[in-house]
Fold:
Amino acid sequence: MEDFKFIGKDKVPVVAEINTLDEFKRFVFSYSYKFDEETPDEFKQIPLASDSSTNYARYYRGHSHVDYRLQSTLERYLEKFGKQIDIEKEYERLQEKYLEHCKRILLNQSIDGYILLPSNLKDNDIWAFAQHYQLKTPLLDWTKSFFVALYFAFESQEENQYRVIYELNEFFNVGEKLIIEPEIKIGNRINAQKGVFTKLSSIEFEDIATMNTNFGDGYVFHRLSKTLISSKLRKDVLAYLASINIDASTIYPDLLGKIKLCEIGIDNAIAAINLEYEDKEEY
Structure:
């Protein structure tokens, strides 16, 4: 068995740890965008490369904390019931009952004079539509773009050691396709985020993380892996992403994006008067 490194609360192998700006610049080389005059000077020395989002066998997800697991909003909600629910055995049956309830409410129902969803809509499209409106579902958001995942990992101001980028690779998948791309038009946000979904439990993700291919000479192909990037690099990472036109206004092409851009002003104001974040309990 390979000697992999595990950090956090899941059993997904860590393939890289990025702790300095120089390490980040070397790492981002394989994903880097075409730079322009607004690109921070420290990044202009990185050679040009194509956006990895053109390789749709790879999918990414960003987490702001190393202890967050690959769990859907539904699975996280069910955790509060503890051992009363066996996710491995009962998760699919519970989803079926839940979906039937949602179908009775959502399909062919008139809301403000409009038919909400047609009766022939596929189950995964129902879930995707409902998730867009904040319903707890078994779907987990992923993106085709490494850069979008990087933004989500660093978007929030949190005091922790690492941010996480998960990479799910479908290139050698010979079984059932893991990625769900909804056919229903949900809105501009999913397009802006190059969004796709999976419908797997955290247990299934950890099983996938064990499916590695060893090509010899120390090279291992990982079906599922994660990269850790130091939270101390947040300012540099967000500046880099903004220079390639990835910020709240492009990730959220609606009113939410404008609100999130306003929130950045809090960090800017704090930096302007030289305050430092302290990890204190909230009342």
